[in-house]
């Protein structure tokens, strides 16, 4: 097979790899589309994600769809030939968190395209990746790959909404509208939010999300007074999602959320201690939740995509063959032009 293999920062090579025999419970795919995630961008440009540095060649990619072209022993023959969304996570099923039904917090998680352990966990940006049959969610053949490859990030957004609780009729704030923030806006709208406000420091993603999901868009770099106005009268929003990983945005969420409201931290904040106005949090009795990955929401995401309940098509702004993979990564980093970029094998 051919695969996108990262050797070090900005050294990504499309290499030939041997097709290994399938083990029990495994299938081989023909890759349909692969979406570039923020973690892929960090690996590509920085050679690391947080503390996890690339120490050996790493096949990138975890947001993928494909068609099953070969099945291994013990796999239901009905899966052969099916179009599938691929859940990139493989919780162990044995640890305490898995036993409590919190598989997304698994202590021994296997997740595609990660340098978190050595040997690295290889990803799925390959023309014939091997995955577990249990990771495959079959969909109708007519489902376009370019939409199906949104299943994983949409699942992340849906899990964030799950953490916030009932959003029906609520006023919602989302800080940071990269792909995850944009998908949270779509998921919150589907969940019945009455009013959605979004913030960012770039006009292009704000304009896009304003067209498809948000009632109010604010560039906090250009008009910080609008965000400050939300803090008057002890806050404006019932629920806030911090999706940028920015400390100023976190403070905006804290101050702009009404007493008794909910704040969900989705973006990765800088490492170390994070200053928070805890007295405000205490006095307003805010509920603060972390949101990490997803579990049952992956199946919900696939259903929402295949039924058309959530339309992600406007978020796809670029698609490149792997022969131009470096261009794809450069485009994905250009927020003035792109929201979500995908690659495919030509």
From TrEMBL:
Coiled coil ranges: none
SUPFAM superfamilies: GroES-like, NAD(P)-binding Rossmann-fold domains
Cofactor(s) the protein needs: Zn(2+)
Top-rank taxon: Bacteria
MF term (GO), any: L-idonate 5-dehydrogenase [NAD(P)+] activity
EC primary class: oxidoreductase
Swiss-Prot/TrEMBL keywords: Metal-binding, Oxidoreductase, Zinc
E.C. no: 1.1.1.264
Pfam families for this protein: ADH_N (PF08240), ADH_zinc_N (PF00107)
InterPro entries: ADH-like_C, ADH-like_N, ADH_Zn_CS, GroES-like_sf, NAD(P)-bd_dom_sf
Domain Alcohol dehydrogenase-like C-terminal: from-to ranges: 179-305
Ranges where the Alcohol dehydrogenase-like N-terminal domain occurs: 23-141
Family: Belongs to the zinc-containing alcohol dehydrogenase family.
Name of the protein in its database record: L-idonate 5-dehydrogenase
């Amino acid at each position: 097979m051919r695969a996108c293999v990262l050797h070090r920062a900005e050294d990504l090579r499309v290499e030939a790899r041997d097709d290994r025999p399938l083990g029990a419970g495994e299938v081989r795919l023909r890759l349909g589309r692969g979406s570039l995630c923020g973690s892929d961008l960090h690996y590509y440009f920085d050679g690391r994600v947080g503390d996890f540095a690339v120490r050996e060649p790493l096949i990138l990619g975890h947001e993928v769809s494909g068609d099953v072209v070969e099945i291994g022993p013990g796999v239901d023959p009905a899966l052969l030939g099916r179009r599938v969304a691929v859940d990139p996570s493989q919780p162990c099923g044995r640890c305490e968190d898995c036993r409590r039904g919190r598989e997304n917090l698994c202590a021994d998680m296997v997740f595609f395209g990660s340098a978190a352990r050595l040997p690295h966990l290889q990803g799925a940006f390959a023309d014939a990746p091997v995955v577990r049959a249990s990771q495959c969610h079959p969909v109708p053949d007519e489902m376009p790959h370019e939409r199906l490859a949104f299943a994983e990030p949409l699942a992340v957004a849906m899990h964030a909404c799950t953490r916030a609780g009932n959003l029906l009729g609520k006023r919602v704030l989302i800080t940071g509208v990269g792909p995850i923030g944009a998908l949270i806006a779509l998921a919150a709208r589907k969940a019945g939010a009455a009013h959605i406000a979004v913030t960012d420091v770039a006009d292009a993603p704000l304009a896009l999300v304003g067209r498809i999901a948000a009632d109010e868009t604010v560039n906090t770099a250009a008009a910080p007074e609008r965000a400050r106005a939300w803090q008057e009268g002890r806050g404006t929003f019932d629920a806030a999602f911090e999706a940028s990983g920015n400390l100023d945005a976190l403070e905006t969420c804290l101050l702009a959320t009404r007493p008794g409201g909910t704040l969900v931290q989705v973006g990765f904040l800088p490492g170390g201690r994070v200053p928070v106005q805890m007295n405000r949090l205490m006095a307003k009795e805010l509920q603060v939740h972390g949101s990490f990955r997803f579990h049952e929401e992956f199946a919900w995401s696939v259903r929402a995509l295949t039924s058309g309940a959530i339309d992600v098509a406007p978020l796809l702004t670029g698609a490149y063959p792997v022969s131009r993979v470096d261009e794809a990564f450069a485009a994905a980093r250009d927020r003035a032009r792109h929201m979500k970029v995908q690659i495919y094998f030509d």
